Every structure is written in C-alpha cells, then in structure tokens.
Amino acid sequence: MKGPSLVRSLGVTHSVLYGLGVSIGAGIYVLVGLAAGRSGLNAPFAFMISAGLLLFSAASFAELGTRMPVAASEAAYVDAGFKRDWLTLVTGLLVIVTASISAAAISVGSAGYISVFVNMPMPVLITGVILSMGLIACLSTVQSVTFAGVMTMIEVGGLLLIIGAGLFSGAEIFTRLPEALPAFSMSDWSGIAATALIAVFAFIGFEHLVNVSEEMKDPSRTLPRALFLTLGITAVLYALIVWIAVTAVPPAELAQSSAPLALVFERLTGLPLGTVGSIAVIATLNGIIVHMIMIARVAYGLANAGRIPGFLARINPTTRTPIIATLFGVVAILVLALLVPLGGLADLTSLATLAIFIAVNWALIRIKRNETKPPDDIFLCPVWVPYAGLTASVLLFVVSFLPYAK
Q1: How far is CA 200 from the centre of its chain?
Q2: What is the rounded distance in angstroms from the CA atom of residue 357 to the CA atom of residue 74?
Q3: Computed from CA positions of residues 133, 138, 142, 143, in that sequence, does the dihedral angle turn out positive or negative?
Q4: Among candidate residues 330, 385, 38, the one with its CA nearest the CA of residue 199
Q5: Which of 88, 218, 300, 359 has the lowest CB atom count within 10 Å?
Q6: Which fold has domain 12-405?
Q7: How many C-beta atoms surround the C-beta of residue 119 within 10 A?
C-alpha cells in the first residue's frame, strides 16, 4: 500500500521488554498450582524441559525472522516454504484468532482482579479494560511498547519479590534441590510430561517477537538476541518461582489454591494478599496491550500482502501505526470477552500455537532444502535444528491428548 510505513525504532532493550511482556503474563500467577498438582517437586524440572524443547523452535524463528523481517511473519514463512496461498492465509488467521482468544481470557482475568478493588459490574470492567488498553496500543510503537515495558518491569519485579523472599526464607530451598530431579519411575515422568504441556502455555509469547521485526532497527542482530534472551530469562524466572512455591507450600495445598502465588507470598512474608493482587492487575493489563500490538501487526501484514481487505494495512501518518488494524483487534477481543465462554481455551491456545510451530519448522526445512546458498547477514541455524523443533512440537502436541495431560 502507498502511504506512510512502519518505522524501525525498536532496539534490543525494547524488543526484550516486548517479548517478556507477552511471555510473562498472568498465566504464571495461576499455573503454579496446576503444575504442583501434576508433578510436585519435579515441576521446576518440567519447566526447564519445556524451555529446552522450545529452544529449537526459537532458533527456527530467529533464522526465518532475519530472512524475512516482516509483519504477519508466520504467514510469510509458510508462504515461502509451501507456496500455498490457502495455507498462508490459514496460518495468519490462526495467529490472529489464538492471540484474540488469549487476550480475551486475560481481559476477563484482569477485570476479575480489578473487581476486588472496584465494585462495578463485570461487563463494564471488561469493556473499560479493553477500550483503555486499545487506546494505548494505538500510540506509536515506541510509546506503546515503552508503556508495556514499564508494566513488564513491575510485573517481573513482583516475581523477583517472591524469589527474594524465598531465597532469604532459610536454607531449605537449597538443601532440598536434589528432590527436584525425578526418579526412574513412570509416575514421575508422566507428571513431568503433563506439566511440560502447561509450561508451553506459560512460555507462549516469545515467538511473537517476529511480528514486530519490521519495526526493529537491525533485525538481523536484534531479533535473535531478543528471542533467546526472552526465552532464557523467562525460563530462569519460572523455574525459580515454581521451586520456591513447591518448597514454601506443600504441592497438594498449592494445587487447591485459586491464587497460588499470593498464598506463597503470604506464607513467606506474612504480608497481605493484596500486594500480589495489585501486581497481577498490572500483569494482566500488560498482557492485553502486547497482544493487541501483535494482532494489529499480523492483520497489517496480511492486508499489505493482499490476503485480507487492504484498508487494514493503512498506517496513521501521525503515530505511524496500523490504527484500523488495532481497532479491528480491539473489537474482536471485546466480542470474545463479553459473549464467548472462555473456560478451557488455554489448552486450545497451546495446541494452536504448537500447530503454528510445526508449520514454521517444516517451512524452514523446505526452504533450506530448496536453496543452494543461504543469504548473507542472517542468523543461520544448523540444518538439524528445524527437524528438532518439528519433532519437539509434534511430541508436545501428541502429549496433550494423553490421559495424564488432562
């Protein structure tokens, strides 16, 4: 489309803050209890296993993102690998749908946290949350990502507060470390496999960095660094949080709690639950903003490629952002949050994301097979990496259908 274009304004710091904002969402504040119930003291090990499996896909995204630093990235990768218009369109729409469902679920959760402090009807709170975050997402990319980045730092600060409380709570957190390693029993490894699937949902978000690669100053260097830093920081934080949680509170009790991290914080410090509740509000609001930014960029990319109506590719000359595409995402999230029951959609989001990972890794395999010499100045991963990413994604996808993963 003719007219203003996106601006390359994001460096490594902004990119990592964006990646952490998508990855470290409200999920970790509720998933700890479920993880403890499935694998007990082995839960941190399961999170690290999941991060290791996702590392291969992160490398595939890094190479493809430096080959094609564009919005609607997953759709562009599938198009380059398979040359099938229908598959390209389905991939792009799948990314938008899964992000919209996730953002709607986070919006409902955010309104729930806010209702503790503000006595208003839930539909009013949900609408207010989504519309206000939509206005922020319409700002220039640097402004909206900076705002989200500040909230991300507060959000991460809440996790660090719990980690600090755990580290200074006594020597037990260190002396019990051997208990985190699983025994050679089917029950232990079954629980780890089930927890690894939960962890996939907790880690989802690092891959969305590719959708803002068109706005990175130097994507060939910024994108790989941001991807690996985001996944690495998230993995370390999650492993520490889960270990502190299962050592501070018995796993069976943790699994029964509706606010597991708040319970852990109260048990470690004796301070009121509202402290973590306030941070959870910030975490959820931040998750909504970064999802809106990503949805708008994917819609913009698909429209710019002529695959969906072209008006969604219009860039506002003042903010240099796709405001129409952003508003499209806001409306979709609002409708889902108000009208669709969202229970159990976390599993569907995980499965859809794994399907996208499968398609992206497979696309990179086909691209590598069909070229004689790779382009210069890209992040180039070894030939076996996308095969490993494909295998790991298929494995996690299959595990989700096993009885113990429910």
Answers
A1: 9
A2: 9
A3: negative
A4: 38
A5: 218
A6: Amino acid/polyamine transporter I (1.20.1740)
A7: 7
